[in-house]
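Exercise (ungraded).
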Amino acid sequence: MDLNDVIGYALRIGVIISVILIIIGFILLIPNPKFSELESPHSRFNTSVIKPEQVLYGSFKGNGLDLILLGLMVLIATPVLRVILGVIQFTLEKNKIYTVITIIVLFNLLLAIFIIPLIVK
Amino acid sequence: MIDPTFLLELLIASIIAGFIGALTGLGGATVLVPIYTLFLAIPIAYATGASLISTIATSSGAASAYIKDRITNVRIGMSLEIATTAGAIIGSLIAHIVYEDHLEFILFIIFGIVILSSLYPQIEKASLELPRNMKPDWSTRLFQLYGKYYDATLRQIVEYQGVRWWLGEIVMFFAGMVSGLLGIGSGALKVVGMDWAMNLPLKVSTTTSNFMIGVTAATSSSLYWIFGYIEPVLAGVTAIGVLIGSYLGSKALVRIRNVRLRLIFIAILLFLGIDMIIRGVTLWI
């Protein structure tokens, strides 16, 4: 099993975890009276009002909506993990130019996730 | 009261979008956003937010299958991600301005134009199974733009060499920008960048594009998250539906010949592109 396989499995496992979280979230959420409001295409509830630490706390308490959100966060994290594994892969292959290239890609991703939100908000 | 019909509609629409997205390398979103906005009356901000999430699901879900097939060129994909992620950041910020100023009609029109403009290179080369040979240039060696794969329909090993990395990179910056602006994986433009600019075989372009769109969409969607364009219930259903569809699509991809793939491509794009422009103009007037 080479690193390409590891990367393939890592992505797949990430997606599976995310799907399981989302499905459990839906099962817990559907009996909730708030659901019909959330389900509306014009729902006012969206990700701008969410705090990541609340999502984690709510998920442990079995809040369906937080589990769905956690699933979505895991999904967004899979490509980030993929790029990190890419850096490791090219380093091990001693492919210098591609190690640098992949680090630049990772930098762009982290810029979008952590730095720009601080500036925009 | 819950409306199960609407949930079911969402699920079916997203399965169809995922199937076509994986088959064409477009990413489910190019089909999903028109269906959601034109037929299910979902606001375009939420439609694009959900479709970005689904794009990540498509890409990550199919990646392991493609890596196993050894058609995806991970190096070429990664080198082009520099431009797509940078473009995605710019595009998402522009999208934010557009929504703040309620200029959504612009996005419909651009969406339609982007779809239709990706038609031309497809029609032009529709008769060719494999790209013409081109002389390798400086970028071929520096960025290691070569590879080979076994083509199951042609029953032969195809060796290829990419050229004009810089041109690919420019196209990819715009692909990333469009991705951030319209909430799509921008797979069509990525395929254009690799297929037309870099002279790579269509199967390499589509699979590598499918690999790339996840990283691009993750960049855009983390910004969309902050802006509040992701509605969790909608995005959750969409992600699952598109995953199911893309799984089926990736199974079908290896069995379909390139020429037929292009024809499916063209018909769907034509229809959706025209519809999006009509909607945009209607909103404008």
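Further reading is listed at the end of the chapter. For now, observe: Chain B touches chain A through 64 residues (CB under 8 Å). The CA atoms of residues 50 and 234 of chain B lie 6 Å apart.
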